[in-house]
C-alpha cells in the first residue's frame, strides 16, 4: 500500500513538473522580478495602445515600462481617468494638484489627446503622456519617487 501511494505521489510530482515546463505560463505583474506583461481588465487594457504610443513618442518604450504604467493605472485608478478616490489626487495615475496640468485646448488638439478637460489630470491620454514624459526626463528613479507605493505591486 505504501509503495503504491509513493508511486502515485511521484507520478503527481512528475506531471506537475512537466506541466510547468511545457505549458506556457500566463505572464503576470510580479513585484520581485519586474515582469509586468500580464493582461488586465478592460478598464485598464483600453489604455494599453496609448501607453505604447506615448512611451514610443518619448523614446522610452520597453515592454516592462508598458507593464509598469498599466500596473500603476490598475492600482491608482482602476482605469477610470475621473477617479479621485485619493483626493486631491486625480486621474489615471493620481496626479497631485501641484503637477503642471493647465495645458490649453490647443495643446490637446495639436497632439490628438482626445477630450479636453480644464483639469488636465482627468484626461486619460494626458495622464499617460505625462507619466511617459516622467520616464523620459527623470527615468525610473522619478517614477519610483512619485509612484513608489504602486510601482512594486
Which terms summarize this structure?
single chain, mainly alpha, 6 helices, elongated
Question: Which helices and strands appear, and what pairs or packs with what?
Answer:
Layout: H1 2-22, H2 42-45, H3 48-57, H4 63-76, H5 105-110, H6 124-151
Helix pairs in contact: 3-4, 3-6, 4-6
Structure description:
The protein has one domain (31-151). Helices cover 54% and strands 0% of the residues. The chain has helices spanning 2-22, 42-45, 48-57, 63-76, 105-110, 124-151. The model is unreliable at 23-35 (pLDDT under 50).
Indicate the structural class.
mainly alpha
User: What percentage of amino acids are in beta strands?
Assistant: under 5%
- Helix content range: 40-55%
Distance between termini? 47 Å
Please tally the helical runs, counting DSSP H or I stretches of 4 or more residues.
6
Please give the number of β-strands. Answer: 0
Number of domains: 1
Question: Quick summary of this structure?
Answer:
The chain has 153 residues and is mainly alpha-helical. It contains 6 helices and no strands. It is elongated and about 80 Å long.
Amino acid at each position: 500500500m505504501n509503495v503504491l501511494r509513493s508511486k502515485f505521489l511521484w507520478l503527481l510530482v512528475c506531471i506537475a513538473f512537466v506541466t510547468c515546463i511545457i505549458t506556457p505560463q500566463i505572464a503576470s505583474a510580479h513585484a520581485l522580478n519586474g515582469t509586468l506583461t500580464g493582461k488586465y481588465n478592460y478598464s485598464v487594457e483600453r489604455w494599453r495602445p496609448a501607453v505604447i504610443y506615448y512611451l514610443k513618442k518619448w523614446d522610452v518604450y520597453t515592454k516592462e515600462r508598458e507593464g509598469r504604467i498599466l500596473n500603476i493605472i490598475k492600482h491608482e485608478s482602476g482605469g477610470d481617468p475621473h477617479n479621485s478616490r485619493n483626493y486631491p489626487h486625480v486621474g489615471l495615475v493620481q496626479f497631485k494638484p501641484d503637477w503642471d496640468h493647465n495645458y490649453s485646448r490647443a495643446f490637446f488638439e495639436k497632439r490628438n489627446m482626445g477630450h479636453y478637460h480644464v483639469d488636465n489630470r482627468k484626461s486619460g491620454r494626458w495622464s499617460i503622456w505625462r507619466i511617459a514624459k516622467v520616464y523620459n526626463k527623470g527615468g525610473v528613479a522619478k517614477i519610483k519617487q512619485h509612484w513608489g507605493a504602486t510601482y512594486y505591486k
